[in-house]
């Protein structure tokens, strides 16, 4: 796919805010007729710019309002160890995000749980048991000021 123009970027911005907008309304907001807007949207989907559509859930109402960020240091950072760690994190529901970091630690995890007690259990039984984990440091969120989720 060629470079994105202003219409493509506007479509992406609007869909990121409201994925349930009708094609008619989207076309009107970006200044195109319905068919060209649909074609652009399909091309953005096929090009991987739009990975999917879904509901944004409220973690607080679902009883998962406790957020902690965890710095993880591994005992081995060769490809085999990194791949094993990466794969294992995908199977832990409480890990909302996992990022490999260029720092004095290896990964930064965003963990979402019910409360501190539940977090301690997840840390002790799941995160610390991940392959090659040698050390963790936890930072507890006191207030979420901006969160795109």
TrEMBL record:
One record GO biological process: regulation of DNA-templated transcription
Keyword field: Activator, DNA-binding, Transcription, Transcription regulation
Superkingdom of source: Bacteria
InterPro entries noted in UniProt: ArsR-like_HTH, AsnC-type_HTH_dom, Dimeric_a/b-barrel, Tscrpt_reg_AsnC-like, Tscrpt_reg_AsnC/Lrp_C, WH-like_DNA-bd_sf, WH_DNA-bd_sf
A Pfam cross-reference name: HTH_24
GO cellular component: cytosol
Gene3D superfamilies: 3.30.70.920, Winged helix-like DNA-binding domain superfamily/Winged helix DNA-binding domain
Domain HTH asnC-type: from-to ranges: 4-65
Transcription regulation recorded as keyword: yes
One GO molecular-function entry: sequence-specific DNA binding
PANTHER family reported in the protein's UniProt record: LEUCINE-RESPONSIVE REGULATORY PROTEIN
Protein name: Transcriptional regulator, AsnC family
Organism encoding this protein: Cohaesibacter marisflavi
Lineage: Bacteria, Pseudomonadati, Pseudomonadota, Alphaproteobacteria, Hyphomicrobiales
């Amino acid at each position: 796919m060629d470079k994105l123009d202003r219409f493509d970027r506007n479509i992406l911005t609007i869909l990121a805010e409201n994925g349930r907008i009708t094609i008619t309304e989207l076309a009107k907001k970006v200044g195109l007729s319905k068919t060209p807007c649909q074609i652009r949207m399909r091309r953005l989907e096929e090009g991987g710019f739009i990975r999917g559509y879904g509901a944004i859930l409220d973690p607080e109402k679902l009883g998962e309002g406790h957020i902690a960020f965890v710095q993880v240091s591994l005992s081995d950072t060769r490809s085999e160890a990194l791949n094993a760690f990466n794969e294992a994190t995908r199977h832990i529901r409480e890990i909302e995000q996992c990022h490999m970091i260029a720092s004095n630690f290896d990964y930064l995890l965003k963990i979402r749980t019910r409360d501190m007690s539940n977090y301690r259990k997840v840390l002790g039984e799941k995160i610390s048991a991940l392959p090659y984990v040698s050390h963790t440091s936890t930072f507890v969120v006191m207030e979420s000021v901006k969160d795109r989720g």
